[in-house]
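call fold(seq) -> tokens
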Amino acid sequence: MKIIIDPGHGGKDTEGGSNSHWLEKDMNLKISLYQYNIFKELGVEVEITRNDDTYLSPDKRTSIVKESGAEICISNHINNFTNSSPKGDEIIHSIYSDGKLAQLIMEELVGEGVNQRKVFTKRHPKDPTKDYYYMNRETGNVETVIIEYGFASNPEDKKKILNNWGKYAAAVVRGLLEYLDITYKSNLRSNSILDEMLDYKKSYENLLNQNILLRESNNKLSKKINQIRNIARID
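ret:
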């Protein structure tokens, strides 16, 4: 089974799922590269539509997917809205899919704390035999699921994505592996790196506190040594 990962947008196409903390194209790429590396570690054949800040037209993007020989495509995105009310994760699958893969991925994401919005399909208004979204419609026989990890415009989603993007990325991998009946290894190097990244602030604060305590201890030790030296000189 071959997988292809699609970091939505890129280059001049920053798209709307952005805010003061990230551009959607950059967060999509970060999530996608993390997933790509996990699949590589597991020995799963995987490709990616872009691995840097490159613009891909819809035709180019779908052509890469169709010509990859992959059977499943994960297209990563972040939602947005004109006000801050809407929130939650959405997964869109083709009208010709049974939705099993999308549902498994959603279950894993919910397990990591995302706000579930919906798993759905959407038909083209001009031709109900076709999918509305071009990534579902124009990727040929590849089963494509579009994942919207939350709303950049919603404060709760924004905080969750900032703090948990890596966990969300790994959850998608687990859902896909469950669909493929492949065992997920929890001791991957990628997971270790993620843990370090997610705990960076806490670790930094702990190290800072330890350093302060160490300096205080060293100062006390230096004073004690000087006292002993002074006594030795008197003797």
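Strands lie at 2-7, 45-48, 72-79, 89-92, 116-120, 143-151.
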